[in-house]
Amino acid sequence: MTPEITDILASFKSLKLDAMEKVKLMDRYDTKFVLPVNHVPALLEIMRDKYNVLEINGLRISSYSTVYLDTHDYMFFNQHITGRNGRVKIRYRNYISTGVTFLEIKKKTKKNKTVKWRTENILSGNKFDEYAVKFITKHLPLNTEELKPVLVNSFKRITLVSDDPPERVTIDMDLAFSMPDGKEKKLPLIAVAELKSEGLGSRSPFSMLAKELALYPTGFSKYCIGNAIIYDLPRKNILKPKLLLINRIENEYNGSIGA
């Protein structure tokens, strides 16, 4: 994390975690943008007068750690890369700034909205406790015994909030992926901005600001990209355009440093 980003964030108006209830947005539209991390300061500069930054325990950049679960044949991964309606993610996310871990289910509806359910819960080894089993089966017709941890993801996040219209923009950096007990891959030169809003992203003030920096919506699932760069999975070539985008950003970034 560069000092420039930290300095710009210090100039934002802040809000506390309890104020986030107004923009909880558990039923929403998600729009993602991929950019080089050295473009984040310029993005923050044009957002400063329209958004407040979430501050937790004195921190304006928060750390997250996520364990994604899937079946032995990667059913969720395949649902996502083929764009299937009703596709699902199940994960345990540790919000390190608050010390709380949630079991979370995200589902994409036929109208391309994201619905999210979550409950405070901790994964013990590879086993769900009784409460977790009830929570998952309440929302999904699944046999939880078929699920296992397949991918670990960590990142740092800036959360920016607007009340009018109610929306959140998260900027994720320092992305890292690993097998639950093995190979690791880091993407330190990539940032992923995500607009979370009640309406279509094209109508959002953030989308207008993004265009000023020639940023346009790009589908980017951390879960899918992580699996594609960690595992040699069938059909991962569907993600080739996204992987090429990552390579291009990394090559351009490294080229600018060496120039």
Write structural notes for this entry:
The chain has 259 residues and is α+β, with helices and mostly antiparallel strands. It is 27% helix and 34% strand. It has seven helices and eleven strands. Strands 2-7-6-5-4-8-9-11 form an eight-stranded antiparallel β-barrel, surrounded by four helices. Helix 1 packs parallel to helix 2. The longest helix has 19 residues, at 240-258. It is globular. The two termini are 22 Å apart.
**Averaging pLDDT over every residue, what do you get?**
91
Instruction: Name the strands of the widest sheet in spatial order.
Output: 2-7-6-5-4-8-9-11
Count of strand segments: 11
Which structural class best describes the helix and strand composition?
A: alpha+beta
Would you identify the CATH architecture? Beta Barrel
Distance between the termini: 22 Å
Number of helices: 7
Count of separate structural domains: 1
What is the approximate shape? globular
Order of helices and strands: HEEHEEHEEEHEEEEHHH
Q: Let me know the CATH homologous superfamily.
A: Hypothetical Protein Pfu-838710-001
Instruction: State the CATH class.
Output: Mainly Beta
Q: Major sheet: size, sense and barrel closure?
A: 8 strands, antiparallel, barrel
Low-pLDDT parts are: none
Radius of gyration (CA) equals 18 Å
- What percent strand? 25-35%
CATH topology: Hypothetical Protein Pfu-838710-001
Which range best describes the helical content: under 10%, 10-25%, 25-40%, 40-55%, 55-70% or over 70%? Answer: 25-40%
